[in-house]
Structure formats: C-alpha cells, structure tokens
Amino acid sequence: MPFSSIDILELLPQRPPFVAVDALLHVDERTTRTSFRIGDGHLFCEDGRLTEPGVIENIAQTCAARLGYISKYVCRDTVKLGFIGALRHLEILRLPAAGETIVTRIDVQEEIFGMTLVQATVCAGDELVASGEMKISVTDIERREDE
Prior knowledge:
The protein is α+β, with helices and mostly antiparallel strands. It is built from one helix and eight strands; from the N terminus they run E-E-E-E-H-E-E-E-E. The strands form two sheets. It has a six-stranded antiparallel sheet with strand order 1-2-6-7-8-5, with helices on one face. Strands 3-4 form a two-stranded antiparallel ribbon. The chain is globular, with a radius of gyration of 14 Å. The relative contact order is 0.20.
C-alpha cells in the first residue's frame, strides 16, 4: 500500500485541531518521515510561526504515526496511546513560518519495554530547523474510534 493513500488520522491518537502532521512519507524498521504544511491559523502557530511546543508535538506525532502504522498495517492491531517520556538535546534553530512545509525524520535508536528512543530532525526544504532526541512510552490503552 502506498503511503500517500493512508489517511494520517488513522494512525494518530490526536484529533484536529491538535494534529501536527499531514502525511506519512516513509516507514521502515528504523526510519520514519512525515510532512506538515503549517497553517497560519493552526493551534500551534503564533505570530505566523510554529511555536516551540508545536515543533515538539510534530516530532511526537511523527513517532505516533510510526507506531500507528506498525500497529495497524504490520501487526493488524489497534492504534495505542503514547506519551513523551523525555526530550534531550533539543535544538530549535528557527521556528518555521506559516505556509512552509516541514519534513520530520525520526531514526529509532533503541526500543525496549514499550519505550522507544529516537533521534529527530525537522527540515524546511534543505534547511535543518530543529533536532533532538525523544523518548516515547507506549501504553496498552487503545485510541477510541469515536474520538
């Protein structure tokens, strides 16, 4: 199944207006990439720029898209809820502007006991705008389909 045919909302526990990724671009054992076109009226935009919490949420939702894809399309299971366990070495070089599309890449460093450690990069075009490590904890709690 091509990634372009997947509705990103099938993979995420978040619902609008909290969604901070538009499309799943790639998933393999180690790497996941998503894209997000930043809308001026988006919840995480302020003064025409994606806020720092918005950048963090975008990285977290890239992790969620990976986990949702694996749950739904590899394991044939339901999407589970996850939580940010830790954020380290976060460096935001600039806040992307409304109208820009960012591509977020996560590379899995380690997975153990429901915890996933990733290295993340966020780019606007060829420009690195943010990077850091994030640890995500996955629960056994299923996303409710009516949400």
